[in-house]
User: Which sequence fits this backbone?
């Protein structure tokens, strides 16, 4: 027998706040100039990076310094595709950037997790930190 899911008042309030914030951010270009729109866009982008770090470390318990690596690879691929291939549609660039970040994450995970035993937390942290440092050096 299926049970019905009931939202508590707390969850309903959170959803309402999220909807209001979403509407505020979507209406920013109507009320502010280009500088503020770019500024708030950068805040949202860095907020997504912080949320990904919270998900990996806070919920999964894996200390990873590679979040910036995967995020950066996706951003780099998105910028190169938009510039060199002249594809300016976010619906085309965003999936390609996401796939590039995912493939980099799979590559780093494969390198770190190959072996008979599971690696320690410190090994994963240092491995992802090393990958981030190497990617930073290669990008410059």
Assistant:
């Amino acid at each position: 027998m299926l049970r019905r899911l009931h939202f508590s008042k707390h969850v309903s309030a959170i959803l309402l706040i999220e909807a209001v914030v979403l509407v505020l951010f979507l209406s920013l270009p109507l009320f502010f100039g280009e500088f503020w729109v770019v500024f708030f866009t950068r805040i949202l982008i860095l907020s997504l990076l912080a949320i990904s770090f919270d998900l990996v470390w806070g919920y999964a318990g894996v200390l990873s310094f590679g979040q910036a690596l995967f995020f950066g690879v996706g951003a780099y691929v998105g910028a190169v595709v938009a510039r060199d291939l002249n594809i300016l549609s976010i619906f085309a660039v965003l999936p390609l950037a996401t796939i590039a970040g995912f493939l980099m994450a799979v590559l780093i995970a494969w390198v770190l997790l190959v072996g008979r035993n599971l690696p320690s937390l410190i090994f994963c942290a240092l491995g992802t930190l090393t990958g981030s440092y190497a990617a930073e050096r290669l990008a410059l």
About this structure: Helices lie at 9-26, 28-31, 34-59, 67-84, 90-113, 121-139. Residues 9-139 form one domain. Residues 28 and 133 are 36 Å apart (CA to CA).
